[in-house]
Amino acid sequence: MNERVRVTGPARRRATTGDRSGTREIDAGTELGRVYMQSLLREQLRLALGILGLLVVTVGMLPLVFHLLPGLAEVRVGPLPLSWLLLGVVVYPWLIVLGWFYIRRSEANERDFASLVEEVER
């Protein structure tokens, strides 16, 4: 019969981290940690409101434009009315572009925040 043998090495020690004051401030809920978190949240909120504003201006105003310019309701692009084409087809790629941009900027904000906290830790 074959006997199974378990081979292990000596226990490994984890590298000790130095004084991590930036993250410690955030974890401890100090005033400085609160300022750090508020700056990140404020930047993310500004980004979200900017994207939402752009969405309202571009897509949200389409019904108003068609109401104010009734002649546009008669415009056809191929077999489809312009309003259907804009609201039923063009809107979706635009939402994807806005979502892509939002994610990219949001991740960049988080990277900037992490580098700021790492700078303080040094």
Give a description of the structure.
The protein has helices spanning 21-28, 31-60, 62-68, 82-121, and strands at 76-77, 80-81. With 122 residues, it is mostly helical. The protein has one domain. Strands 1-2 form a two-stranded antiparallel sheet. Strand 1 and strand 2 form a beta hairpin. Helix 1 (21-28) packs across helix 2 and helix 2 runs antiparallel to helix 4. The protein is elongated and about 80 Å long. It starts with 20 loop residues before the first helix and ends with a helix. The mean pLDDT is 84.
Strand and helix order: HHHEEH
Give the termini distance in whole angstroms: 58 Å
The percentage of residues in β strands lies in under 5%
Strand order of the largest sheet: 1-2
Report the strand count.
Answer: 2
What is the overall shape? elongated
What's the helical proportion of residues?
55-70%
* Domain tally: 1
Q: Structural class, judged by helices and strands?
A: mainly alpha
Mean pLDDT: 84
Rounded to an integer, what's the Rg over CA atoms?
27 Å
Our count of helices gives 4
Sequence stretches where pLDDT stays below 50 over 5 or more residues: none
Largest sheet: 2 strands, antiparallel
Keywords: Membrane, Transmembrane, Transmembrane helix
Region (Disordered): 1-24
Protein name: DUF485 domain-containing protein
Transmembrane segments: 47-69, 81-103
